[in-house]
Hints:
Layout: H1 4-27, H2 32-58
Amino acid sequence: xxxxxxxxxxxxxxxxxxxxxxxxxxxxxxxxxxxxxxxxxxxxxxxxxxxxxxxxxxxx
Length: 60
C-alpha cells in the first residue's frame, strides 16, 4: 500500500489543509452557511488524520 514516508507526507499535507480550513472558518464567522461547510470539512480532515495516524503506527 503506502510506505511510512508516503504516509508522513500525506499527514503533513493534511495538517496544512487543516490550517487553511481553520483560517477560513474563523474568517467566515458572519456567514453561518460557510461556517457549517468549513466545520464539516474540518471534521472529515480530523477523521482522515486519525486513520492516517493508525496506518503510520501499523507500519512501524
